[in-house]
Amino acid sequence: MNNRVLVLNQDFSPLMVCSVQRAFILVYLNKSEMVRSANGHKINSIAQSFPMPSVIRLNRYVNAPYKGVTLTRQNVFKRDNFECQYCGTRRDLTLDHVLPSSRGGTHSWTNLVTACKRCNAKKGDFTPEEAEMALKRKPHKPSYALFLRDTTSPHNEWDDYLDSNN
């Protein structure tokens, strides 16, 4: 059962993720409206049954000045779906600089990828082209919406609101 709810701002832009309990209270107190329910799941009280929210929209616009993703080790792993960008394994993961630091490579979204220790050691102080190791995906700065999605259990009800342009 889905126990996370996507919260949209008044303009339908993704704002945050909250618990089902918090979302239900926001809907019940008329601070938000339910946009999508969680595929037939219900919240039961002693006297009533309510549809469980999966996506809600706030009734008032909330100004969120910064909606970026912080560059951290775990966020790079999450962007790369916790798999080596050279061989695809999910074991012994570390970070790799596409252009090595010793050769002027920066510590940035576009220069860091997830790599297993074996591939990282094999690549060494070379670029992927020089080491003849192709990247599965080009590194990029992820959108804020991507990080609202829970990678362990996909929320199909959220897809319309979490496109890659946000």
Notable characteristics:
single chain, 166 residues, alpha+beta, DNA Binding (I), subunit A, 2 domains, 4-stranded mixed sheet, elongated
Description:
This protein has two domains: 4-63 and 144-158, no CATH class; 70-142, DNA Binding (I), subunit A, CATH 1.10.30.50. It has helices at residues 20-28, 73-79, 117-123, 144-148, and strands at residues 4-8, 14-19, 32-44, 49-58, 93-97, 112-116. The chain is α+β, with helices and mostly antiparallel strands and 166 residues long. The mean pLDDT is 88. A hairpin with a 5-residue loop joins strand 1 and strand 2. It contains four helices and six strands; from the N terminus they run E-E-H-E-E-H-E-E-H-H. The radius of gyration is 20 Å and the shape is elongated. It has a four-stranded mixed sheet with strand order 2-1-4-3. The chain has a two-stranded antiparallel ribbon with strand order 5-6. It is 17% helix and 27% strand. The relative contact order is 0.18.
